[in-house]
Amino acid sequence: MKSKGYAAHVAKGALTPFEFERRDLRANDVALDISYAGICHSDIHQAREEWGRANFPMVPGHEIVGTVTSIGSAVNKFSVGDLIGVGVFIDSCRECEQCLAGLQNYCANGMTGTYNGFERDGVSPTYGGYSNNFVIDADYAVKVPANLDQTGVAPLMCAGITLYSPLKHWNAGPGKKVGIIGLGGLGHMGLKFAHALGATTTVFSHSPEKEADARAMGADHFVSTKNPEFYNELASDFDLILNTVSAEINLEDYLRLLKVDGTLVMIGLSGKPYAIGAGTLIGKRRSLAGSMIGGIPELQEMLDFCGQHQITSDVEVISAEYINQAYERTVASDVKYRFVIDASTF
Ligand code: NAP
Ligand code: ZN
Questions:
Q1: Are residues 82 and 203 in the same domain?
Q2: Residue 257 falls within a domain, yes or no?
Q3: Are residues 188 and 278 both part of a single domain?
């Protein structure tokens, strides 16, 4: 199947129009016409090789929403015309403990990334969602609730699930104090979910001008990290803090805000290592943890939750030729709160 998209050709180079082929439909595959694709900071990290060596040409994009245009002979999960979503991975081994438990994101043999990777044959490159169409095994796509505004749905496929999963895993809910560091694409979804789950929410942001937006999205408290005094003023009473920052920050400052048994979850991945003083953890039996997207069953659960609570991402819809500027603005924390590419412009 012929596909038109945008690709990065060298690390840190501009993305430019790119034509390529996608595989013919296998028995359990569906083809979709993409309507929108979100720009995740992970796309930028990879296109710039901030996480190590990448595969070029790279068509990024792992926040995909679109309409099914054809189905393979064995597909009964979807029909032509269905609105579906594709996220950060398109396959996994299907045999390991994690895959069998629906945690394909933690596949023991490695999930197959939507782009910047290879199919399970190890040789066919995967191309992502900055393009007009897609082919995926039906088991790795999910159904989008019809009542949601499509423009704000694509980011749920990565930013949404990546924050929903740890909030559920660490039991965010009534009576729990949850902090979100960074009000970007991931952070604003975390805030909306934490609020909808009934937790008391605090946003830590280095952009004081985002306060009004944060409060409109459900923040009970907003802390400008430009004022370093706040670390001393806030009590150690957080149950859970989610770090969504794409750059390095001082983790000790946040670990100290956790109560006994509180957890700081690493979600942002700057690619640089951290040094932590063990004493900060030991003194209050605190945990430092990590979390990566979510499995297929939880992805569907998250979308259904969004349908019930009318939750979508706040987006700026752009055309394909704006992608490079959108990258610059995302790195400068200047996006409200996710760029989404209109796929009809590829
Ligand atoms: P984003 O939209 O760029 O948001 C990151 C936010 O971090 C910014 O809006 C900003 O919030 C804050 N920030 C940025 N630079 C900062 C700095 N120098 N100091 C302090 N705060 C800063 O990025 P995103 O798409 O949400 O992704 C965030 C990170 O999560 C990336 O590293 C991405 O690769 C990673 N990620 C991880 C997973 C996973 O499964 N764990 C999945 C997807 C993405 P304020 O302006 O409010 O301070
Ligand atoms: Zn992502």
A1: no
A2: yes
A3: yes
The span from the CA of 325 to the CA of 163, in Å, is 26
Question: Separation of 191 CA from ligand 2 center, angstroms?
Answer: 17
Asked if 11 and 139 sit in the same domain, the reply is yes
| 264 and 251 Cβ atoms separated by less than 8 Å | yes
Check if 259 has its Cβ closer than 6 Å to any atom of ligand 1. no
pLDDT tens across the length of the chain (346 residues): 999 999 999 999 999 999 999 999 999 999 999 999 999 999 999 999 999 999 999 999 999 999 999 999 999 999 999 999 999 999 999 999 999 999 999 999 999 999 999 999 999 999 999 999 999 999 999 999 999 999 999 999 999 999 999 999 999 999 999 999 999 999 999 999 999 999 999 999 999 999 999 999 999 999 999 988 888 888 899 999 999 999 999 999 999 999 999 999 999 998 888 999 999 999 999 999 999 999 999 999 999 999 999 999 999 999 999 999 999 999 999 999 999 999 999 9
Distance (Å) from CA 296 to ligand 1 centroid: 23
Output phi, psi for 96, to 5 deg: -75, 170
The answer on 229 and 204 residing in a single domain is yes
The parent domain of residue 277 ranges over 159-290
Residue nearest to atom 44 of ligand 1 (CA): 42
Supply the CATH number for residue 241's domain.
3.40.50.720
The verdict on the CB of residue 113 being under 6 Å from ligand 1 is no
**285 Cα–ligand 2 center, Å:** 31
Q: Which ligand has the shortest distance to the CA of 266?
A: 1
Ion ligand 2 neighbours, Cβ < 5 Å = 40, 42, 158
- 28 and 123 in a single domain? The answer is yes
